[in-house]
Amino acid sequence: MRKWKVLCPILGRARGLSEKGTVLNSRRIWLLAAALIAALTLTAPAVAAPRHHKVLVKTRQHLGKPARHHLIAVRHGHRIHWYSKTHGLPKHKLPPIKLSANVKFAHAGIRAFGPTSVPNVTAVGSCQFGTDTLEGMTYVQSYGGLNADVASCVGNDGGNTESNSFFPSPTCDLADGQSVHRSPLEVAKFMDGEIMVLCTVPDDNGSGGSAANDQGAPYAVYQQGFPCEAAVGTGSSGNSAFIAKTNDSLEYSQTYTENGQTVKALTTSCIGQLPSNKTAPSTPVAHLVSCTQYDPFAAGKFVRGLGETITYPDGQFQETCNVPNYSNSVACTSGTDCSTDAGADDTSNLNVTESPTSDGTLTESVDNGTALSCQPEQYGGYTGFDPNWYSFHFTGTGSKVLTYDLFTLPFNADRRVEVCFGATIEFSVISDDGAAQPGTLPDGTPGFIGLLPSCDSVSGQSPCIEGVGPIGRLAANGTQVTVLIPDNFPADPHMHI
């Protein structure tokens, strides 16, 4: 097994000799304490990576105090302490989440669904955070010409308190990623002694640059200590799936600006120790998993993505789900066109152009919630070609032009390409009665689902397909579908082709 080193300075606290002030009146003792601290600092040996070993993560010196108390909720046994607004969650309990609803113990290169490509594990090795020796991995996801770097470490420091610390960028130093050396650091500790260290970069451009890092975008912790069911590998080979239940969990978001759009990224990680009746693998084993996270910006809703799970020989496990382009949004002014542009790895891309008649915010997301499908007969019996689905919403009024590019489907004029559409209000479809049928939308709300008709067959009061053709006039580039949505259609749509 390759070995790397995660380095972090011990984070000291200059609190004085007594927090109650019983010896604060002694100037001589203060001077003696200061001299002692200075001597220890000068004589302490510097922690360095061994020769011929790459540095996995390295926190820089002079970090200052960590930012604390930005949690919404922390679980202490069966009791939950709320620090701020609950975002619609009931205060008496945190709902359970299945981080890996669909377990995919897949071979490298097998794609599940967007919004990102399959995570590629780039390193597995040891980590050193302060005096704690941890185990860690890094992985990279590619989407829309960008990369998302993740570094995650897990261990047990023997503590018995729940805590959370945030260290702003630049904090981490990652040799096996592009931009983690300039990213923030998140540390979470739990009552059973478990500890996790996380560094994420949502938008590395492949050369080490990141808009999120440049803007100092912090991690906004949504919740900690919620019930989590993580899919982990067990057995001597690590290839036997086991759903591990744990409350050692953390979810945070990151918001920054990319190409004029406000982008949000989500990260959820769950850690723990295998039960005594489960066999740990002889070497660290990582697997691709499809994962589901809470949507911190929409109570009761979920966000779906891809992640990596890893199990270590000592029985320690961790699963991390990272969705780097959870949503894109832009502020629109009446009378001026505005647009969002979201892509699901190299498979598809949707550009939404709004022509607003009133001010508002246009938001677009990929693969949030449960997949939209028109495969059931009542919705048109259409399987579709894109495993991804898109959702969009405008808080004002106006009409939309949707440009949907499917890069993996070369254009063929004889091929049937439809648009599976879902909305909260009724709309016209290509069916015997021409009406969309009731169904459950990807975000869990009730609505209507069906296949859109062509624009020459409707009166203009309903969404419709304006055209289907090649991308850039070359059939090999893929298939492009243009959809029109009139300004008198105020629903929150979902779609895929």
Shape descriptor? elongated
Which percent range fits the helix content?
under 10%
* CA radius of gyration: 25 Å
Structural class: mainly beta
Span between N and C termini?
Answer: 44 Å
Q: Biggest sheet, in brief?
A: 12 strands, antiparallel
The number of strands is 30
Count of runs of 4 or more consecutive helical residues? 2
The overall pLDDT average reads: 75
Strand content: over 45%
Number of domains: 2
Low-confidence stretches: 1-116
Keywords:
single chain; 497 residues; mainly beta; 2 domains; 6-stranded antiparallel β-sheet; 2 helices; 4% helix; disordered N terminus
In words, what does this structure look like?
The protein is mainly β. It has two domains: 55-327, no CATH class; 333-496. The chain has helices spanning 27-43, 211-214; strands spanning 5-7, 55-58, 73-76, 79-82, 97-98, 120-129, 132-143, 146-156, 163-167, 185-189, 194-204, 219-224, 228-234, 240-246, 249-258, 261-273, 285-294, 302-311, 316-332, 338-344, 348-356, 360-366, 390-394, 398-406, 420-423, 437-440, 446-451, 464-471, 474-485, 494-496. Mean pLDDT is 75; it is low at 1-116.
What is the structure about, briefly put?
The chain has 497 residues and is mainly beta. The protein has helices at residues 27-43, 211-214; strands spanning 5-7, 55-58, 73-76, 79-82, 97-98, 120-129, 132-143, 146-156, 163-167, 185-189, 194-204, 219-224, 228-234, 240-246, 249-258, 261-273, 285-294, 302-311, 316-332, 338-344, 348-356, 360-366, 390-394, 398-406, 420-423, 437-440, 446-451, 464-471, 474-485, 494-496.
